[in-house]
Amino acid sequence: MPPATDRLSTGVECDGLVVRYGATVAVDGLSFRAGAGQVLALLGPNGAGKTSTVETLEGYRRASGGSVRVLGLDPIADHRALVPRIGVMLQRGGVYPMLGPSRVLRLFAGYYDDPDDPEHLVELVGLGAVRRTPWRRLSGGEQQRLSLALALVGRPSVVFLDEPTAGVDPEGRLVVRRIVADLRDRGTCVILTTHELSEAERLADQVVIVDHGRKLAEGSPAALAADPDGGSVRFSTDPGIDTASLASAVGGGTVVTEESPGSYRLRPPAGSASPAVVAALAGWLAGRGLAVGDLRTGRSLEEAYLAITGSGGDGGAPDREPPAVRPGGGDGEPERRSRT
Predict the structure, then answer these.
(1) Rounded to 5°, angle at Cα 96 from 95 and 98
(2) Both 178 and 81 in a single domain?
(3) In terms of pTM, does the model score above 0.85?
(4) Cα–Cα distance measured from residue 152 to residue 122, given in angstroms and rounded to the nearest whole number
(5) How many Cβ atoms are within 10 Å of 270's Cβ, its own excluded?
(6) What are 161-201's pLDDT values in tens digits?
(7) What does the H/E/C string look like for 130-169?
(8) Residue 43 within any structural domain of the chain
(9) What residue numbers bound the domain in which 44 lies?
(10) Are both 170 and 129 inside the same structural domain?
(11) Do 237 and 313 contact (CB within 8 A), yes or no?
(12) How many structural domains is the chain composed of?
């Protein structure tokens, strides 16, 4: 991993970014930074302004206010110089439907002066068995993997990943996680947008949560998920256990609640040592022959996210933002369907 000074010297800078669509403010004074060798996850509900922010960083949308820099370059004024140095993974589109992974990667490799080896990338993303299968016949997860390979073919210094694990099977998720970790280790700056918060928790060094175009919170996944209740323990076992007996076994002042059948939350007294609490919990369960399932202290990033945004949205639909049109593009064709 690059030294700290190098990590902060290159990457992405967003300072007071404002994006407007007429009277609608989609991004309202957003600021964050991501250095080389960092993975930053940009999270938010539908319509939060994530897509508008990323499109501005990629140079396909002009900021209404504030400024953005990618690798020290202005994405609009220096667009021609910037494009060969960034990789963009799209959720869908941007690929000729009759071309297979090998052919389309060879085609895209021709756009760069020093591309990665297309056949290496085919194997890297686990598409060797379908290297000649046309895009339209690939599964959704295989199409996602090919989109990831296309984002990497130019050996980019900054990569933008849009829902990289959407529709990807468990094996494919492991591939994506490994590739993102490798990018980090090579000093690549990765900007990730996703609704899959468990993936953001696994992949990101830094998280920025936005809503209505404004930053609500920023920090590492662990810092954002820190439990404000000071050391709650969540666990699962048989439904209907004697919560009063368990609370007494852990110690005075402990409260145990069954939040849903078989899922519990244990709140120990303030200042209790988590290892001692977990040991008491495990001993109580073992004494009654009860198996323990999921067990963790603190909150998940998803729980923290829902608390921060005050939302329980489905997190599955695309951002509800006006369709983007590339500067000088066609008649209202949606943005980010192609990288050319």
Answers:
(1) 130
(2) yes
(3) no
(4) 11
(5) 9
(6) 988 988 888 988 999 999 999 999 999 999 999 999 999 99
(7) HCCCCHHHCCHHHHHHHHHHHHHCCCCCEEEEECCCCCCC
(8) yes
(9) 4-225
(10) yes
(11) no
(12) 2
